[in-house]
Amino acid sequence: MMKNQLAGLMKQAQQMQENMKKAQDALADILVDGESGGGMVKISMSCRHDVKRVTIDPALLGDDKDMLEDLVAAAFNDALRKAEATTQEKMSGVTAGMPLPPGMKFPF
Asked: Are 46 and 28 in contact (CB under 8 A)?
């Protein structure tokens, strides 16, 4: 009896691991866009946190360097928050039913 339960748990863990891998691979293809300055600075990032594109409105290029740096940082942080939220949403289906401690995020 105990052996069957253990085998079932092992099979379940293996299936979950396969599902996690598929979900993580899919996240690499999902892009989110962060922006700042009313859309004058945009950053496109994958949900694996790879920056794919940075777009800066030409009107900002002659402006204050410090302001432009702040806008790029704000757009990056906006994209990062969106990527993390999307990752949590997509991974929640994979981790459903798993007893996780509060605040624990997937993937580790």
From this structure: yes
CA distance 49 to 28: 8
Beta bridge pairs of residue 35:
42
Taking only the tens place, the pLDDT of each residue in 17-72 is 888 888 888 888 999 999 999 999 999 999 999 999 999 999 998 868 999 999 99
Dump the DSSP string for 4-55: HHHHHHHHHHHHHHHHHHHHHHHHTT-EEEEEEGGGTEEEEEETTS-EEEEE
Q: Which residue has the tokens 């949403």?
A: 89
- Comparing 9 with 32, the larger pLDDT belongs to 32
Which are the contacts of 79, defined by CB distance < 8 A and separation ≥ 6? 32, 33, 34, 43, 44, 45, 51
Domain contains 68: yes
Domain assignment present for 3: no
Range of the domain at 67: 28-83
